[in-house]
Amino acid sequence: MMDNSSEGLTHVNQNNQGSIVFNEETMQLVQKMIKRYPEGKHKSALLPILHIAQAEFGGWLSSATMDYVASVLNIKSVEVYEVASFYSMYNLKPVGKCVLEVCRTVPCWLNGAEELVSYLEKKLSIKVGETTKDGMFTIKTVECLGSCGTAPMLQCGASYHENLTNEKTDLLLEKLRAENTRKSYTDNI
Ligand code: FES
Question: Rounded to two decimals, what is the model's pTM?
């Protein structure tokens, strides 16, 4: 079940039985996205629909969720798996409410990305790719997020956190803990 306190896309939820299915309102949004593309090119809506599905169904894409998205788009499941496994923004296993995606590409690396990752690992007592026991944080490293001038930085949900120092990182973790909500790329939709 989706966390009741989740932000963004609050209009989407699993149905009462907990099965993988968009509710009516979400399905309308999905159909709107599909209609943005010409007839026969509906597969192009896959990326945004996967974002919605990930936000809806616990922050990650299970096989059942990907099969469901395939059925909505009337494409093969393997076509969804191929896309979902290619992009780092899709999680193929359960993650914490806040996925801390630290950019590790050269400009960030030169400006302290490694130190930032080490600091997060120490503060949260987890390694990259792991989730804290309380289910709050997951650390990931990703490639350039297009914010090289404000390195080092990380993305959490739809928000960028830039020019990070240890002090700023402490404040960010405190704030995220206090909010205690699942962050999603769709938070600003
Ligand atoms: S290198 Fe980190 S945002 Fe571009």
Answer: 0.86
